[in-house]
């Protein structure tokens, strides 16, 4: 009997992992860094990932409306910089060092732009931002999650999103793909060429299906924080139905950074599923309450989730919350929702002033 | 639910057939066990009961195969309902319950086949059945390894009082650091099963459980209170065949409604409600040998997500949905004194041991 008990204990221990997101946190730390031929690049706060780097060209995928790029070169040289997934009106400006920036003309794809950089020897910094990035005027953003196997029809959704006037960017709460394979991530990025606004997204549990590392290669960090029009946005990687302890440390810093400001927090899995018997929520209900207490203490204004393929409006810890998983993955039946996305108006002064569900079909 | 009744009916029919067999038939103990054990492990992983077939226990083998088939059917039908309806809010609770029951029958029929081919003294288990003690107390230690919480060491206390068909069990887990505690008050009513004879002949029972839980997490600024109602059953596998005497299956299902209160200085935060589907599957054996009656070992799956072990965190797609797994051992050295050892794997690793003290098994009224 003793052998049986040992077998059972070891078998159970092999089933689980207490920190499944630990490796992804380490990947988060490395996003936006690259070095080649005596030139090193670093995107501050990892707000863009390096898609390719050669001796003469750097291609970045943006995770935020704006970011800073620090370049250190042993000698003066020219580099072509392409930023994919950026705001159509984004501008690149020198911030430090004697770097020269020349725009290389309009791109056929509104969310891709190119510049020629003349780098000095030593360190230089450039910044990407929309001309109105620091304005305090209201602006509109959308939320789309859970496309998964419906990638074949996602063009319908993107066309509907393109119809929305004055939309600045689209937020994603994960599950872009069915299994997170390289082919599926490539396909998603190629479909995004249709979209007139950038898509800033975290990952969902379906991105962990094959190789959890690939998402970072294509889309950058899973947990990150940015500001637009003085509204703070935090996206969290809870694809393993939990937050890694390091991500809590980052969150504390981001909550402090946004203290007193309008703050939107998005992640894939809702900590508490309004239909609790479904368990479309975190693995530990206690950890869910821990996170919500922290968000309430940080006076977060809005929480956005995906994962459940429907639409729910509710409050958690007194914070307005929306689940919007309408990207097309197997829908929740009998809910009369179907494919949809959400549209929000945010103001740094008045908060979230409107939210609307836009049905696609 | 209808399927579960059908399953119960089918197993009952089979159990009666099995019990009608002459008990004087040659016991399996006289046969070589190597082939049946190997058959139970390997082909038995696909066709549960293969070990008993090799043992010559055809009726038991059929029962186990039936149990596996029903389990697989329930598991697939429940799982398909969840997937195809996108986990519809209207269907997910019954579908998940059916899925869990199916998993329980499927997995325990495999374990039962292995047990039956290994066990040589199943008949001895009959003398080890014991009615619930009138009083039982537990005092122990648990270690919880959870990267999300600072607590680690717990004092565990429990008192259980059996009065007729009722059992009242208050219990508490107290962190050494004082940062968290979990209190539980459980009342159970035995709907079916023997609580009157000191030496019951069958381990089966059906209990109705009403529970109340309160837990506080001071450093994380929240506390939770919940009420739950569940039906918890144990089925003596000896009903399926003589080789399975001393083994049992546990199945439980229920619902809990909880309230989360936030305690944030300077802020008034509305409470949240949480709903929980409860489910429990277990496979256990009555211990013989040196142990006193009432000793048993159990491996189980618990669908709870609100306790210290909570749900499994996995590296792939399925993280969050599944509850935790565990194993427990109750070993009594004498009629009064024993130990309990417990290990669980979920969002946290949990393990520890307790001292158990119990009074005589109740006889008659229990007064």
General description of the model:
The complex is a heterodimer of chains A (361) and B (367). Chain A has helices at 2-15, 22-30, 154-162, 182-192, 214-219, 245-257, 285-297, and strands spanning 33-36, 39-43, 48-53, 57-62, 67-73, 77-84, 91-96, 100-103, 112-119, 122-129, 139-144, 167-173, 199-202, 224-228, 231-236, 263-267, 302-305, 311-316, 319-324, 340-347, 351-359. By secondary structure, chain A is an alpha/beta fold. Chain A folds into two domains: 31-129, Jelly Rolls (Sandwich); 139-359, Purple Acid Phosphatase, chain A, domain 2 (4-Layer Sandwich), CATH 3.60.21. The longest helix of chain A has 14 residues, at 2-15. Chain A is globular, with a radius of gyration of 21 Å. The model of chain A is unreliable at 1-6 (pLDDT under 50). With 367 residues, chain B is α+β, with helices and mostly antiparallel strands. Chain B is built from six helices and twelve strands. Chain B has a twelve-stranded antiparallel beta barrel with strand order 1-2-3-4-5-6-7-8-9-10-11-12. In chain B, α1 runs antiparallel to α5 (58-84), α2 packs antiparallel against α6 and α5 (58-84) packs antiparallel against α6. The longest helix of chain B has 27 residues, at 58-84. Chain B is globular and about 70 Å long. Chain B starts with a helix and ends in a 9-residue tail after the last strand. At the A-B interface, α1 and α7 of A face α6, β7, β8, β10 and β11 of B.
């Amino acid at each position: 009997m003793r052998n049986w008990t040992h077998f059972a204990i070891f078998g159970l221990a092999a089933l689980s992992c207490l920190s499944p997101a630990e490796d992804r946190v380490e990947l988060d730390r490395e996003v936006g860094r690259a070095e080649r031929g005596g030139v090193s690049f670093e995107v501050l706060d990892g707000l863009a990932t390096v898609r390719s780097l050669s001796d003469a060209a750097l291609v970045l995928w943006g995770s935020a409306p704006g970011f800073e790029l620090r370049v250190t070169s042993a000698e003066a040289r020219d580099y072509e910089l392409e930023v994919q997934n950026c705001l159509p009106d984004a501008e690149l400006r020198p911030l430090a060092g004697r770097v020269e920036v020349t725009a290389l003309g309009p791109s056929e794809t509104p969310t891709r732009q190119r510049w020629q950089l003349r780098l000095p020897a030593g360190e230089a910094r450039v910044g990407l931002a929309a001309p109105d990035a620091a304005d305090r005027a209201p602006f509109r953003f959308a939320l789309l999650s859970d496309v998964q196997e419906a990638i074949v029809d996602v063009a319908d959704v993107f066309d509907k999103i393109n119809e929305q006037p004055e939309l600045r960017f689209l937020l994603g709460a994960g599950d872009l793909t069915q299994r997170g394979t390289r082919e599926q991530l490539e396909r998603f990025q190629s479909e995004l060429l249709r979209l007139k606004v950038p898509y800033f997204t975290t990952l969902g549990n379906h991105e962990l299906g094959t190789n959890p590392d690939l998402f970072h290669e294509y889309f950058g960090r899973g947990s990150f924080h940015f500001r637009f029009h003085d509204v703070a946005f935090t996206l969290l990687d809870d694809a393993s139905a939990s937050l890694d302890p390091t991500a809590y440390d980052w969150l504390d810093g981001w909550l402090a950074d946004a203290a007193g400001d309008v703050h939107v927090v998005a992640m894939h899995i809702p900590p508490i599923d309004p239909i609790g018997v479904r368990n479309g929520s975190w693995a530990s209900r206690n950890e869910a309450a821990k996170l919500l207490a922290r968000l309430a203490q940080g006076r977060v204004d809005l929480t956005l989730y995906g994962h459940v393929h429907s639409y729910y409006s509710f409050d958690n810890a007194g914070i307005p919350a929306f689940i919007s998983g309408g990207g097309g993955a197997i829908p929740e039946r009998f809910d009369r929702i179907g494919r949809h996305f959400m549209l929000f108006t945010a103001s740094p002064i008045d908060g979230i002033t409107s939210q609307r569900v836009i049905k696609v079909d | 639910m209808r399927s579960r009744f059908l399953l119960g009916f089918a197993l009952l029919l089979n159990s009666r057939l099995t019990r009608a067999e002459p008990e004087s038939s040659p016991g399996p103990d006289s046969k070589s066990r190597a082939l049946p054990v190997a058959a139970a492990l390997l082909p038995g992983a696909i066709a549960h009961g293969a070990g008993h077939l090799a043992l010559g226990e055809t009726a038991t083998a059929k029962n186990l195969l039936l149990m596996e088939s029903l389990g697989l059917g329930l598991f697939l039908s429940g799982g398909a309902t969840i997937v195809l309806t996108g986990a519809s809010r209207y269907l997910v609770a019954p579908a998940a319950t059916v899925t869990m029951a199916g998993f329980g029958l499927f997995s325990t029929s495999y374990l039962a086949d292995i047990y039956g081919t290994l066990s040589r003294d199943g008949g001895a288990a009959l003398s080890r059945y014991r009615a619930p003690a009138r009083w039982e107390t537990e005092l122990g230690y648990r270690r919880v390894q959870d990267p999300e919480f600072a607590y680690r060491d717990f004092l565990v206390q429990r008192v259980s009082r059996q009065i007729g068909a009722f059992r009242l069990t208050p219990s508490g887990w107290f962190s050494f650091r004082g940062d968290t505690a979990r209190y539980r008050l459980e009342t159970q009513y035995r709907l079916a099963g023997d609580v009157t004879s000191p030496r019951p002949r069958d381990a089966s029972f059906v209990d109705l459980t009403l529970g109340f839980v309160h837990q506080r997490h001071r450093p994380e600024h929240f506390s939770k209170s919940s009420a739950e109602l569940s039906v918890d059953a144990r089925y003596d596998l000896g009903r399926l065949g003589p080789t399975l005497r001393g083994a049992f299956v546990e199945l439980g299902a229920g619902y809990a409604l909880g309230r989360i209160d936030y305690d944030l200085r300077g802020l008034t935060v509305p409470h949240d409600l949480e709903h929980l589907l409860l489910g429990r599957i277990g496979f256990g054996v009555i211990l013989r040998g040196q142990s006193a009656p009432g000793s048993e070992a159990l491996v189980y799956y618990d669908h709870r997500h609100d306790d210290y072990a909570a749900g499994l965190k996995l590296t792939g797609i399925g993280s969050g949905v599944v509850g935790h797994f565990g194993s427990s051992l109750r070993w009594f050295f004498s009629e009064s004194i024993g130990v309990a050892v417990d290990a669980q794997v979920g969002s946290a690793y949990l393990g520890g041991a307790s001292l158990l003290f119990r009074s005589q098994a109740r006889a008659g009224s229990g007064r």
